[in-house]
Specification:
- By secondary structure, the chain is an all-alpha fold.
- The chain contains 4 helices and no strands.
- Helix 1 runs antiparallel to helix 2 and helix 1 runs antiparallel to helix 3.
Length: 172
């Protein structure tokens, strides 16, 4: 079986792999940035709407407080009516503050969709297996059988293989 001239061979495809991984990382970074900016823009518009609504609620609450004090002043002295309304407002403010902190803790500014794609990419890279002719890897040769993850024994650092490494691993 022969391949066509315009098809890349195994070595050419392997030579392209580092460049493709770098470009994939750049694209995913740009996607995450775009996703985070989109979410921040929507949150900013929502916050502006909340601020406008709170502006009107502030003046409405002042009118309601005055009405509550006036209503209670019919039965009680005016100072007792004002004190009662002030304590009620303090309790409402404490409840709102507590609820606000609870909701803020639940917020998640992490770009979940991009992280899911990156996790899939990493899992796909982890599934790549190289044909090593049935030989054990360098880390499997470094540790005797049965001693890996033994209780009371610290994890050993990865041993370097007996062959020289070139490129990313550094030369000996």
């Amino acid at each position: 079986m022969s391949r066509k001239r315009d098809e890349a061979g195994t070595f050419e495809l392997l030579a392209r792999l580092p460049q493709q991984i770098v470009s994939l990382a750049k694209i995913e970074y740009d996607n995450a940035k775009r996703e985070a900016l989109g979410a921040a823009k929507k949150a900013g518009i929502g916050a502006a709407g909340v601020i406008v609504a709170l502006f009107f609620v502030f003046f409405m609450l002042q009118a309601l407080v005055i009405a509550a004090i006036a209503a209670l002043a019919i039965v009680w002295p005016w100072w007792l009516a004002a004190l009662t309304v002030a304590v009620a407002l303090l309790l409402l403010a404490a409840a709102a503050l507590f609820a606000g902190f609870k909701l803020m803790r639940r917020g998640n500014p992490v770009p979940e969709a991009t992280l899911g794609r990156v996790s899939g990419d990493i899992a796909a890279l982890g599934d790549v297996r190289f044909n090593n002719g049935g030989q054990a890897s360098a880390t499997q040769r470094a540790e005797p059988a049965g001693t890996q993850n033994a209780p009371g024994r610290a994890q050993s650092t990865r041993e370097t293989p007996d062959t020289e490494t070139y490129g990313y691993g550094g030369d000996r």
